[in-house]
Inverse folding.
C-alpha cells in the first residue's frame, strides 16, 4: 500500500478534522467580526480614558503571537479558576485576537471617513448609534473588504495552532496520521490542499462582493 | 420667545480659539420667509448657519426652531443626544459638498432619515421620496447611485433628501459653490421653486442676482457682526453702509 492509499483509507479522519476546523473558523471569525465592529463603535467620539485603554488592549493583542494567547487561555486561565474546554478556548482566542485586528482595520478606514457625511446624518436627526449602523459601518466594511479577505486567511491559518492545545482540527488529523504511519510529507500536503482550497474560495467570494460594490458606483463616489 | 417664528436667533456669539467669529447675532425668520446671508469669505456665514442646527455650538445666545430651543433643555442644561437629534430633524440642511451617502441609491438616500429617524413606513417614505424627486426633476434617477450623478444632480438629490424630513426650515450653505457654472442654474431654479411654494429658507450664497430674486430679507455679515438687514431692493439699490457698497461693487 502506498502512502497515498493509507491516507485515502484515513479520509474520514481528515474530513472530521476539516469540518471541525471549518466550525471553529466559521464561529470564531463571525464573532471576531462582530467584536471588531463593536470595538469600532466604542472608539467613536471624543478621546477618553476608556477609549485609550481599548486602543492599548487592541494593540497589545495585535502584537501578541497568537500561540501565546491560545496557551494563556487554555493553560493559564485554569490557574485563575476558569477552566475552558480546548475547543472553546480556541474559538475564544481566535475571536478576540482577530476581533482586535478587525477593529484596527476598520479604525484605519474610519479615520478617513468623510466628515461631511456625518454632518449630513447629524443634520437629519441621526443619533450616534443609528448613524453608525446605517451609514458608517456598511461603507467601512465595503471599503476594507480586501483587508477583511486577508484577515480571513490569517484566521484560517491560525486555527492550525489549536493543535497544540489539543483541539482535534485539521492539522491535528494530519499530525496524528503522520505520527501513526510515519508519512509526514503526504499527510501535510493533503492538509495544505484543504487550507488552500478554502482560502481560494474566500478570495473569490470577496472579489464577487467587490463587483457588487462597483456596480453600485461605490468605488467612484 | 415668540412661537410664530420659524427660526429665532438671539444674541448669538461664537469664538474659535479666541477669534470671535459671531458677535451678538440676532435674527428672526418668519414662516415662509427666505433670508439670504451675504458676506465676505470668513465673515462667519457658515458658522451662523451651522449653529442653527447645532453642528457648531455657540458660546452664548439662544436659537429657537418653531418655538423649540435647540441645544439646551428646559432646565438650562445641555440637551441629551436624543432630544438634540429630534430638534435637528426639524431643520433640513443642504451642504456645499452635497454629502450624499454613497452606499445608498438616490431613493434610499431620501428615505433613509424618514424611515430610520422619523419612523415612517417604507412605503409612505418612498411615495413621498418619488414626489420630491419629481419636484427636483430627477424622477428617472431613483435607482442611481450618487457616484454616477453630476454635481447639479447630486445637489438636487440633497435638497430632496432634506425636504423629505418636512423641516420647519431649510438651511443652504453655498449650495452652488462646488458646481460647474453650467450646473448652477438647475439648482437655483429648484430653490426658487421652493420659495414660491412657501418653504422657509435660510441661504448662504455668493449668487447676487439669485439672492435679490429669491429673498424676503438680506442679511450682511461682516467679521461676525450683522451690519445690514434689509429687503433685497433696499439692500442692493440703496445700501446704508460703505462696507456693503464695496462688497456689492466687487460682486457686481
Ligand atoms: N472649526 C473651526 N475651527 C477654527 N476656526 C474656524 C472653524 N470654522 C470656521 N473657523 C473660522 O471662523 C471664521 C468664519 O468661518 P466661516 O466658515 O463661518 O466663514 P464663511 O463666512 O462661511 O466663509 P466662506 O465664504 O469662505 O465660506 C473663519 O475665520 C474661519 O477660519
Ligand atoms: Mg462658508
Amino acid at each position: 500500500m502506498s502512502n497515498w492509499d493509507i491516507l485515502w483509507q484515513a479520509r474520514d479522519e481528515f474530513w472530521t478534522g476539516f469540518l471541525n476546523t471549518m466550525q471553529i473558523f466559521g464561529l470564531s471569525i463571525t464573532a471576531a467580526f462582530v467584536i471588531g465592529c463593536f470595538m469600532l463603535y466604542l472608539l467613536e467620539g471624543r478621546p477618553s480614558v476608556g477609549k485609550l485603554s481599548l486602543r492599548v488592549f487592541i494593540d497589545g493583542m495585535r502584537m501578541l503571537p497568537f500561540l501565546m494567547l491560545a496557551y494563556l487561555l487554555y493553560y493559564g486561565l485554569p490557574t485563575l479558576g476558569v477552566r475552558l474546554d480546548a475547543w472553546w478556548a480556541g474559538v475564544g482566542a481566535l475571536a478576540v485576537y482577530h476581533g482586535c485586528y478587525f477593529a484596527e482595520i476598520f479604525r484605519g478606514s474610519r479615520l478617513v471617513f468623510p466628515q461631511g457625511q456625518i454632518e449630513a446624518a447629524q443634520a437629519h436627526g441621526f443619533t450616534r448609534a443609528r448613524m453608525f449602523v446605517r451609514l458608517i459601518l456598511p461603507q467601512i466594511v465595503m471599503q476594507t473588504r480586501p483587508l477583511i479577505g486577508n484577515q480571513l486567511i490569517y484566521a484560517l491559518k491560525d486555527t492550525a495552532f489549536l493543535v497544540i492545545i489539543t483541539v482535534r482540527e485539521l492539522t491535528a488529523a494530519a499530525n496524528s496520521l503522520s505520527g501513526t504511519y510515519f508519512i509526514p510529507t503526504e499527510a501535510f500536503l493533503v492538509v495544505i490542499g484543504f487550507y488552500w482550497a478554502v482560502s481560494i474560495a474566500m478570495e473569490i467570494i470577496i472579489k464577487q462582493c467587490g463587483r457588487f460594490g462597483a456596480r453600485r458606483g461605490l468605488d467612484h463616489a | 420667545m415668540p412661537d410664530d417664528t420659524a427660526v429665532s436667533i438671539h444674541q448669538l456669539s461664537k469664538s474659535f480659539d479666541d477669534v470671535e467669529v459671531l458677535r451678538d447675532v440676532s435674527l428672526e425668520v418668519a414662516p415662509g420667509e427666505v433670508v439670504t446671508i451675504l458676506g465676505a469669505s470668513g465673515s462667519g456665514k457658515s458658522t451662523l448657519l451651522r449653529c442653527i442646527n447645532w453642528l457648531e455650538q455657540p458660546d452664548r445666545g439662544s436659537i429657537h426652531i418653531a418655538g423649540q430651543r435647540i441645544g439646551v433643555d428646559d432646565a438650562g442644561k445641555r440637551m441629551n443626544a436624543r432630544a438634540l437629534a429630534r430638534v435637528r430633524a426639524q431643520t433640513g440642511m443642504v451642504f456645499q459638498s452635497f454629502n450624499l451617502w454613497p452606499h445608498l441609491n438616490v431613493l434610499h438616500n431620501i428615505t433613509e432619515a424618514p424611515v430610520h429617524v422619523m419612523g415612517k413606513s417604507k412605503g409612505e417614505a418612498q411615495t413621498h421620496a418619488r414626489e420630491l424627486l419629481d419636484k427636483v426633476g430627477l424622477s428617472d434617477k431613483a435607482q442611481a447611485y450618487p457616484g454616477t450623478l453630476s454635481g447639479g444632480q447630486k445637489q438636487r438629490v440633497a435638497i430632496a433628501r432634506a425636504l423629505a424630513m418636512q423641516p420647519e426650515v431649510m438651511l443652504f450653505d453655498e449650495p452652488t459653490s462646488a458646481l460647474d457654472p453650467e450646473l448652477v442654474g438647475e439648482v437655483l431654479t429648484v430653490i426658487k421653486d421652493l420659495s414660491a411654494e412657501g418653504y422657509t429658507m435660510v441661504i448662504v450664497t455668493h449668487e447676487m442676482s439669485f439672492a435679490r430674486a429669491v429673498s424676503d430679507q438680506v442679511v450682511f455679515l461682516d467679521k461676525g457682526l450683522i451690519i445690514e438687514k434689509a429687503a433685497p431692493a433696499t439692500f442692493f439699490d440703496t445700501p446704508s453702509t460703505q462696507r456693503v457698497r464695496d462688497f456689492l461693487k466687487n460682486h457686481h
Notes: The interface with chain A takes residues 53, 55, 81-82, 85-86, 88-89, 91-93, 95, 97-103, 105, 112-113, 116-118, 144-148, 158, 161-162, 165, 171 of chain B (CB under 8 Å). The first strand of chain B starts at residue 7 and ends at 16. The longest helix of chain B spans residues 181-196. The pocket of magnesium ion (ligand 2) is lined by residues B 45-46, 173-174 (CB under 6 Å).
